[in-house]
Design goal:
Elements (H helix, E strand, L loop, with lengths): L1 H20 L17 E6 L21 E10 L5 E4 L4 E4 L5 E4 L13 H4 E2 L6 E4 L4 E10 L7
Antiparallel strand pairs: 1-2, 2-8, 3-7, 4-5, 6-8
Length: about 150
């Protein structure tokens, strides 16, 4: 019995000692880590913006209309960069986060048309070139196609 108690105490001390010996401090990234990003895009919201508190375009455009999107693009790198702009569908992921992709997995296509199926951006406007440390305001046309009402 005494041997069993000694083994249990020794085992407990080894586990506790092992846990405290491998204790490592972990720190989350801070906003000063933004220097790891080569570029930034800031939407300049038009009058058709529904919710101006959003950091993305939340527009109300009639079918067949064209909206001119304006944005500020900044290159933080010490070298020239090329950015390819495009349109993406917004959807909510299982965890509640919002994601933007050209195609969304497992989306019920009968609910409504996807954004990328009704809006287009001409290919000539998709390439943005910035010199080192350059920032500029750019405009891009967004055309909303005429579609039948769904729902």
């Amino acid at each position: 019995m005494k041997k069993l108690i000694t083994q249990l105490l020794l085992g407990t001390l080894l586990v506790v000692g092992g846990l405290t010996a491998t204790n490592q401090q972990v720190q989350a990234a801070t906003s000063s880590d933004a220097s790891n990003t080569d570029f930034e895009v800031i939407p300049l919201k038009p009058g058709t913006q529904v919710d101006t508190t959003k950091n993305y375009y939340d527009l109300k455009i009639k079918p067949g209309e064209t909206e001119t999107l304006q944005m500020q693009v900044k290159n933080y790198a010490d070298h020239k960069i090329t950015i390819y702009a495009g349109l993406g569908n917004a959807f909510t992921q299982n965890g509640g986060d919002m994601s933007f992709k050209t195609t969304a997995p497992d989306v019920d296509s009968s609910v409504s048309p996807s954004f990328t199926s009704i809006a287009t951006m001409p290919k000539k406007y998709q390439k943005i070139e910035l010199a080192a440390r350059e920032g500029k305001n750019i405009t891009r046309p967004l055309r909303c196609q005429k579609v039948a009402n769904v729902g």
